[in-house]
């Protein structure tokens, strides 16, 4: 048997050689090669058909990104007609960055597709091409999902820009969410302080939630101020009790933070992560770019549940 991949190679033969060349599991290789297979043989026609299928999935991704781009252009036009406020600018920049990321992803996937099946000089090349094409398909499908979500959010953003009622309702929803979060943390704090040996992970998580809630309060206060200014400029009413409700959330968050500060000595894995989180969040100022904050929170929590206590 030759080391190259001849036209219409029997699947068993190609798998055997690919195993020798790559050291991968034969059943795994066989599974990956399934799209390239026709009547128990890997054929150029089946490979070409697979490339065509992947191209169609990528074309769908490109279309979804185009639709998101149009939604972004429409929202940007709407934003040009509203007051120059931070709460508008931070949203515009976040949407622009997400759209740029999607465009870059589609371009990269196109480049990968262009080279995925260029050189199939050996069974290992054929196997690797099959893996690459699957990954391109998965990546394109993810772009489709993310672009659809972005388009929907951009349409909602445009509606938010053009309706004071929508802006105020969204702010009320955010305040209610903060109130619920503060109440939930308060229950956790009470439970922890009543326990003889409170779990460090629960104490850590409650501290993270409280610190993030403090950031949220600052963000809500800044957003409320901008929205009130906007409402006054348009001559429309603004919810009278919003600032008082934010003040109450701030008081409850402060009480939670004070109670959590009186804690048992934490293992290094918790203490170090809390210190790193504190450093990151200390640099955050309103209006908050929540995508970055979410990343910081995920980093702080990553792997905590599966770790054992430090020495």
Automatic annotation (TrEMBL):
Keywords: Coiled coil. It comes from the Archaea. Residues 161-195 form a coiled coil. This is Molybdopterin converting factor small subunit. It comes from Halorubrum trapanicum. The lineage of its organism: Archaea, Methanobacteriati, Methanobacteriota, Stenosarchaea group, Halobacteria.
